[in-house]
Amino acid sequence: MALRSSRTVMSFATSQKFSLWRRASRGFSASTGELPHGDSVSRTGGELSSPELIQHEKLYSAHNYHPIPVVFARAQNAVVWDPEGRRYLDFLSAYSAVNQGHCHQKILDALWEQAQRLTLSSRAFHNDKFPTFARLLTHTFGYDMMLPMNTGAEGVETALKLAKKWGYMKKGIPKNKALIVSCCGCFHGRTLAAVSMSCDNEATRGFWPLLGGNIKVDFGDTDALEIIFKEHGDNIAGFIFEPIQGEAGVIIPPEGYLSNVRELCSKYNVLMIADEIQTGMARTGRLLAVEWENVRPDVVILGKALGAGVIPVSAVLSDKEVMLCIGPGEHGSTFGGNSLASAVGIAALEITLEEHLPERANELGQLFKTALQKMHVHHPHVIKEVRGRGLLNAVELHPVRSSQVSAYDFCLALKERGVLAKPTHSTIIRLSPPLTISGEQLEEGVEAFSDVLEQDLPLLKEQSRARGGEPVREPCDRCGRVSGLRSHHDKVGKIQG
Fold first, then answer.
1. What is the DSSP code string of 387-425?
2. What are the TM regions of this chain, as residue ranges (predicted)?
3. Exactly one of 221, 275, 298, 409 is catalytic; which is it?
4. What is the DSSP string of 429-473?
5. Confidence at residue 399, expressed as pLDDT on a 0 to 100 scale
């Protein structure tokens, strides 16, 4: 009898917890007994509407993002649907994480098949998928070895540690003296090491002290880079860069920059580290963006599309001379190289090669950029510049003070016309659809962009004015930059920390 009573109590308690969870999942407030905004019921059958879901995220999640107000509920290739069934074209691709398109069947099959067999062993043991993944990845990109991680930021951390270890072991840099050179305007992630290389005050302020041992140089300026190498070269372990700066607004360096960087790094015995997390895996019309100048870096960082949008997968590639500087116990990850990630990584690479995604990105990218440039010609008072390579493109608007149109408001208008893009800074719209997008869908996106320019512009100006105009951009705390490139004689080459 006592046992039955105990079970009854436990069942009641469990029932109460489940009831509270159900109420919370539907937006019920335990303090007021009401749903947010006074709603008495959810949209259908307990499902939440887009506004309800956005409200829940605002209430229960940290405010470290400012997303476009649309909710993804389902996706296929380049198309996504919200909970209400509205259809959109994805022109962001999760910052190039879904180059192969949303929910590619080969990826899902690999994920499902592997998930039923083995998901994780950790690197404390071997598994039967990781060696195949490692072999395919290194053979595909032409390097001796790889080191698996999960996120892009972890890949950057790995490359930095690898460069420093190489610097001490092989180059003979004195203890605690290793330096890393990075570019003004760079974006390498949100970890402390990554933001310590950043020129973005939002990324750095309030997270002091930043890591020392960093030197900044203007992106695209090899004269300034050589000055730094001459002054500090004996202690410089690596130069890390994005072949195209994505977060900065799809900034493409001058022709010949990458090959000149290669020559300088070889001359001064500095590791050339290419962050290809966004630009790699065929995004720019080549398997790697550095291939546009036939350059082979010492270290390559891959991520995002290596996991095809279904699981985080990243990796660092290098040759044995560099990679074997790290020994057992000196670096690792519980999940890096797990069976599930390896299976997905294999499928992601196979799709990239089998479906000729580099060639596809190059061909569609040329058509897309040409269409955007025609809009620039017809709307020079709104569009300042169109730039890009492959299917990584950006449209830069004139500052709000002159055109009275912000990139965020432009993206909101695009959303209303069924196209999803995301601004960077206040004037730049990034446009990077899945590489599997059809020509017809690409044309549909171009038409929506044109309609915003032709029909929505007066309303956009009103919205931008209502938001108070363009925010005042403060100079960077570390390099003094507000915008644009500057002579290397001004603060370039200063060691941070």
1. EEETTEEEEEEPPHHHH---HHHHHHHHHHTTEE-EEET
2. none
3. 275
4. EEE---TT--HHHHHHHHHHHHHIIIIIHHHHHHHHHHTTSSPPP
5. 85
The rounded distance, in Å, linking the Cα atoms of 387 and 15 is: 58
Amino acid at 115: A
Q: Which of 164, 165, 304, 422 is catalytic?
A: 304
The rounded distance, in Å, linking the Cα atoms of 74 and 76 is 7
Measured CA to CA, the distance from residue 415 to residue 69 in angstroms comes to 9
Specify the residue for token string 């519980």.
334
Torsion sign (Cα): 152, 155, 156, 157 = positive
User: CA 76, 78, 79: angle at the middle one, nearest 5?
Assistant: 60
**304: annotated active-site residue:** yes
d(CA 319, CA 315) in angstroms, rounded, equals 13
Q: Cis link prior to 209 (omega < 30° from 0)?
A: yes
Residue with tokens 């390498």: 188
DSSP strands (E only) in 41-173: 74-76, 79-81, 87-90, 145-149
Q: pLDDT tens for residues 75-113? A: 999 999 999 999 999 999 999 999 999 999 999 999 999
List Cα–Cα distances, 468 to 74, 186, 403, 472, 487, in angstroms.
Answer: 35, 28, 13, 11, 33
For the question of residue 187 being annotated catalytic, the response is: yes
Q: How far apart are alpha carbons 405 and 399 in whole angstroms?
A: 8
> Is residue 185's pLDDT more than 50?
yes
Alpha helices, H only, 61-151: 93-96, 105-115, 130-141
106 is catalytic: no
Q: Which of 137, 97, 166, 496 is nearest to 331 (CA)?
A: 166
**CA neighbours closer than 13 Å in the CB half-sphere of residue 352:** 27
- Identified catalytic residue from 91, 187, 335, 449: 187
User: Rounded to the nearest 5 degrees, what angle is found at the Cα of 137, between the Cα atoms of 136 and 139?
Assistant: 65
**Cα 132 off chain centre by:** 26
Give the residue among 419, 436, 432, 357 at the shortest CA–CA distance from 387.
432
Rounded Cα distance, 280 and 269, in Å: 25
User: How far are the Cα atoms of 95, 204, 212, 274, 474 from residue 201, in angstroms, in the given order?
Assistant: 21, 5, 17, 24, 8
pLDDT tops 60 at residue 15: no
For residues 201 and 222, what is the distance between their CA atoms, to the nearest angstrom?
Answer: 25
Give the per-residue pLDDT at 418: 98
**Whole-angstrom Cα distance, residue 292 to residue 289?**
6
- Whether the pLDDT of residue 238 is over 70: the answer is yes
295-309: b (≥16 Cβ within 10 Å) or e: bebbbbbbbbbbbbb
Sign of CA dihedral 412, 414, 420, 424: negative
Across all residues in the chain, what is the average pLDDT? 88
- In 3-state terms, what secondary structure has residue 320? helix
